[in-house]
Amino acid sequence: MKNIVVLGAGFGGLTFCQHFEHPSASVTLIDRQNHHLFQPLLYQVASAGLSATDIAQPIRSILSDKPNLMVLMENVIAIHPDAKEVVLENRQLNYDYLVLALGCGTGYFGHPEWEPFAPGLKTLDDALRIRRQILFAFEKAETETDPAKREQLLTIVVIGGGPTGVELAGAFAELRSHVLARDFNHIDPTKARIILIEASARVLSHLPEHLSESTNEQLHKLGVEVRSNTRVKDITSQCVELTTGEMIHAENIIWAAGVAASPLTKKLGAELDRAGRVKVNPDLSLPNHPEVFAIGDIAFVLNEDGTQVPGVSPAAMQMARHVSGIIRDELNSPGSAGRPRFKYWDKGTMATIGRSAAVAKIKGFEFDGFFAWLAWLFIHLIFLVGFRNKISVLMSWAYSYFTYKRGSRIITGLQNEDAVEKLGDTF
Amino acid sequence: MKNIVVLGAGFGGLTFCQHFEHPSASVTLIDRQNHHLFQPLLYQVASAGLSATDIAQPIRSILSDKPNLMVLMENVIAIHPDAKEVVLENRQLNYDYLVLALGCGTGYFGHPEWEPFAPGLKTLDDALRIRRQILFAFEKAETETDPAKREQLLTIVVIGGGPTGVELAGAFAELRSHVLARDFNHIDPTKARIILIEASARVLSHLPEHLSESTNEQLHKLGVEVRSNTRVKDITSQCVELTTGEMIHAENIIWAAGVAASPLTKKLGAELDRAGRVKVNPDLSLPNHPEVFAIGDIAFVLNEDGTQVPGVSPAAMQMARHVSGIIRDELNSPGSAGRPRFKYWDKGTMATIGRSAAVAKIKGFEFDGFFAWLAWLFIHLIFLVGFRNKISVLMSWAYSYFTYKRGSRIITGLQNEDAVEKLGDTF
After folding, report:
1. What DSSP string runs through B42-54?
2. Closest residue on chain A to B36 (Cα)
3. Could you tell me how far CA B274 lies from the centroid of its own chain?
């Protein structure tokens, strides 16, 4: 019996486990969470559009029909490729094949000290914390008497004009203008400022220029202040300092500017890119370690034309199927030489900006506005894991689309450490 | 303009605000949460049947159509009846009428030191914490090698055989037997022990004896160990010591044995009962303070036959309407003497035990099993605040009823203080 160990139950790791099956192999899937997260919709949890359980599914129940598969909820401490072993908190696991699908966390370009002041959005806990603190900022503003402090409470800064940043800024703008607008007596939520900061010349720079412009216009309609060509010099508690020296005071600062691969990659002895991604062979295996594969966000892979495979879920799922095929073939005919090269099939890319607002580039077609939004909506619904979640998410969307209300505007966890820390003066 | 201040947005405070309206009065509703909680279903969040947002609704949006009403999310520090003022964190509020609807928290009969080891179930955070720790206990058991430790991880003790305790024990039993049963490789979740401890001779002692017996049978069918006439001597970390000297080792111990009124009642100078409830006049006002009313869980009220009005939501809503009527009449014709006495109309009482299992006593009728369960289901659905929540809850119920799966089995917040504390060795 061959042991195959898979680290991480994101799109890559989960797809591998769903596809791979071989009579003479047992698979162990390890993740420190008990759930698979549909990350493309995480920003909707952060902006109170969906509830946490809508976009998460217990890993065990997704894979419960799989024989020879074991799911462990544990932390990985270290990986020793030469000993072919993975070190967990209180034991080791040996493997014949290792699939690294650990994904990326938030990266601060060498400024880890910014993290406490500008949290990223990678886990459900991140999303719930951001939602809690933004909703609570409006509550505090309602009772705040000092105008300067009130303005700070009603300012949200999103750093990074990639898909996550754009989607967050748009969602916050709608939350503020449509959802919260009617509910307060002293403050006017529509006066809340949402500022999107992008270092480069334009947002969504991976898309054609005219789609970036369309994004700018659509964000502007929603009342988001888009500031491109703007660089952050420093971030301190509730304040962003720009390279121009300008200070922006904001109760909530969200970091969507960079990612960093799991620190475990450092211990692999393989070459890494700036973000800590593993530079793999064309077949996705590690140099000198044909039995170790890296897939998804954590792998640095080049297309034949020299461009980089993007860190998106379709790429991760395609890599998972590729590796699953290689391992199955080798188990069927041991010693067979020559592995196929991974080829990324670009299904297109899209970003949603708000209610009937989005941009999309699918195959040859580039479009924006309502139709891009519809396309986005259904594609995400189709890929959302779990029947129940689809219904429930569709319902939440329909509900907020037609009523302008949101079902998930619940502040919980105010007793939690992080909350108490941040809201210390009030609680 | 008269100022009416309402403390607490539970069933009592919320109902008052929905019913009361007067051109010459403005109402201020204060709660430390931003949401109204449908407490009767809280145990379903704790047992992963429903997600937090299903049973909570933002107070602001429930009352957004109310003129002259302000909602404040703040903590009440003190109440000074003689000065007619309420003290908040950073200011005072003066009132002409005060409605106390602060409800009850968990009470430990003079053993506050038990709280960290046996949390109660009163808030969404309580429910989410219990859910997190119970689901995580199964995850830890899956990787635990020491049999004794594994048995402890798979033991849940519920202390208190009232409705909450019975409903929790039943829900945990189903979670373990139907939902988790298929998902693990090493452990057999159906082997998990669920022990319900009740000090008195029978569970649900407020119901007729034969319904308690029926409850025992139905719990037994679900595999719950019901131990009545059993008293707790001491609770320490993951251990319950009985007066018999017997020690029960359990990873999860939940306290459902007692409630205690908000400590703010102590500062009112009014007479209190053992649980700290305020002994009010027949019109629900405080002795010597006709302008202060106590309603709901926090009020100790006697029926004309000398029996006590139970601390259930229908009673709280009836009291709210009663007080709303008194204040409206006095504003219409000031100086009018003679207030009506509050009369509690008992709509009946019921408790659910599990899938198609419940007991109910409605007017003359007493029934159990499937029909009691159906009645329970629809009555709770009808009273659940908010259209969207009703649909969503009904869906979750239908989903778990027909598929034996549960949608909310997501472990979040493992980084939180309390989690780290409890799961310290693993995280």
Report:
1. HHHHHTTSS-GGG
2. A410
3. 19
The DSSP annotation for A48-78 comes to TSS-GGGGEEEHHHHSTT-TTEEEEE--EEE
Catalytic residue among B74, B85, B167, B271, which?
Answer: B167
| Rounded Cα–Cα distance for residues A155 and A399 (Å) | 27
Q: What is the DSSP letter of B82?
A: T
Secondary structure (H, E, C), B234-286: EEECCEEEECCCCEEECCEEEECCCEEECHHHHHHCCCECCCCCEECCCCCEE
Alpha-carbon distance of A364 to A400, in angstroms, equals: 32
pTM: 0.83
| Token code pair at residue A12 | 């890559």
Nearest-by-Cβ selection for B70 from A75, A185, A427 = A185
CB atoms A64 and B389 under 8 Å: no
Q: Which of A1-5, B5-9, B38-42, B99-103 has the lowest mean pLDDT?
A: B38-42
Q: What is the residue type of A236?
A: T
Query: Residues A383-402: what's their mean pLDDT?
Result: 71
State how far the Cα of A315 lies from the Cα of B28, in Å rounded to an integer.
Answer: 54
Q: Tell me how long chain B is.
A: 427
Which residues of A are the active-site residues? 167
Q: What is the DSSP letter of B34?
A: S
DSSP string, A262-299: -GGGGGG-S-B-TT--EE--TTSEETTEEEEEE-GGGE
Quote the CA–CA distance of B26 and A24 in Å, as a whole number.
Answer: 74
Inter-chain CB proximity A418 and B416 less than 8 Å: yes
Q: Which residue of B lies nearest to A49 if distances are taken between CA atoms?
A: B53
Distances (CA, A) of B389 to A61, B393, B397: 25, 6, 12
User: How many A-B residue pairs are in contact by the CB < 8 A criterion?
Assistant: 144
CB within 8 Å of A233: residues ≥ 6 apart: A241, A242, A243, A245
Mean of all residue pLDDT scores within chain A: 89
Q: Is A242 helix (H, G, I), strand (E, B) or coil?
A: strand
B209 catalytic, yes or no? no
Q: How many CB atoms lie within 10 A of CB A224?
A: 26
Work out the end-to-end distance of chain B between its first and last CA atoms, rounded to an integer number of angstroms.
56
- Smallest CA–CA distance, residue B412 to chain A, in Å, is 6
Q: Quick check: A395 and B399 CB within 8 A? A: no
Q: How far apart are CA B34 and CA A240, in angstroms?
A: 29
* pLDDT tens column, B368-402: 888 888 888 778 777 776 666 777 777 777 776 76
Inter-chain residue contact B411 with A61, CB threshold 8 Å: no
